[in-house]
Amino acid sequence: MTLLPPTYDIARSYEENLSAGPVYAGAIPPAPASRKTWSFLGFELSSPIGVPAGPLLNAAYVDLYAQLGWDVPVYKTVRSVARASHPVPNCLFISTDTLSEADAHSVRAVAPAPQSVAGLTITNSFGMPSMAPDDWQADIRRASEALRPGQLLVVSVVGTPGADGRGLEDDFAHTAALAKAAGARVIEANFSCPNVASAEGELFRDARTSASIVRKIKQRIGDTPLIIKIGALPEEHLAAVVEACLPFLDGVAAINTVPLSIVDAEGNQALPGTGRLKSGVCGAAISEVATEMTARLLRIRDRLNAKFAVVSVGGVMSERDIDGRLAMGADLVMSATAAMWDPLLAHRWKDSHG
Ligand SMILES: Cc1cc2nc3c(=O)[nH]c(=O)nc-3n(C[C@H](O)[C@H](O)[C@H](O)COP(=O)(O)O)c2cc1C
């Protein structure tokens, strides 16, 4: 198996991909006939498979992936103010040796393109760019209209400290309210982005701030379900964060990318520009870290006798990986990196699980 071109052209800028993408020359296979449905946060879904925040830049991407059977598309993280992307390159291949949590913040070198999706690990670095709210709200309305019965649109939001004079917490809540007004059925608050140098990058480590933000968001979005997206944490630390947020929370999605220092063959910073030595790693290499985080969230949910949904993200590269996360007890399974290079993955899984 050779690697096909991804739906996001990694040689081109974010803006070019936004206006010209997605890249897909294949056919749209007919949806497999299945009568089975999956329940998630009160919605009835055709499958428990989604694309997490990132690869779906706008309604055109959401439309393509919905047609290809990814039933829970997450609209890439938006802000309350327009923000440009980091310059190209934004995605580089790196070696696929499995990472452990202890490897976070260590150094890894870029590598040649792998031969197959199984060996696919990349770093991605965009800095959470965003269209202006009027533009993304109109686009989210188009994305909602592209979905079929049994599909669910989640919108990922992040707060921008100082935007229009709002503090981080108020801006998170404001942005979530804008996303809800545009038609988001579920809001995901991104508490973890290794590719920004500012405060919003590692919020999930701080139980008090996280709880205070989810409380403010919930005050604004009412009964619209709220998910937080987080990175890897040791079990007791994770339990403290979940417990603090629990009164306002409907689900936890984990993990976001794992931050590493990315260097070229000479050992120099691989991505150009200040603050870009550290960059988020995703794909096959983070599978173990992600699987362990899913196990921790499920244990914590049991221990607290709580009801929040667990969304397993990270290193899901194959049908087998989807089965594995579901067998653990995850409510939803999502793939970003594999979904970009293997957009038919969800269809194949559904075809063999009818
Ligand atoms: C191209 C790309 C862009 C991403 N952008 C975002 C983002 O805007 N917000 C977010 O919460 N996560 C973002 N992520 C992280 C993914 O949602 C996911 O957590 C991570 O890639 C791990 O999953 P994977 O191993 O299947 O890629 C992005 C990932 C990729 C590959």
TrEMBL record:
Pathway: Pyrimidine metabolism; UMP biosynthesis via de novo pathway. Keywords: Flavoprotein, FMN, Oxidoreductase, Pyrimidine biosynthesis. Residues 122-341 form the Dihydroorotate dehydrogenase catalytic domain. Coiled coil: none annotated. Its cofactor is FMN. GO terms for biological process: 'de novo' pyrimidine nucleobase biosynthetic process; 'de novo' UMP biosynthetic process. The keyword Flavoprotein applies. InterPro entries: Aldolase_TIM, DHO_dehydrogenase, Dihydroorotate_DH_1_2, Dihydroorotate_DH_cat. One of its GO terms (cellular component) is cytoplasm. PANTHER family: DIHYDROOROTATE DEHYDROGENASE (FUMARATE), DIHYDROOROTATE DEHYDROGENASE (QUINONE), MITOCHONDRIAL-RELATED. This is Dihydroorotate dehydrogenase catalytic domain-containing protein. It comes from Pleomorphomonas carboxyditropha.
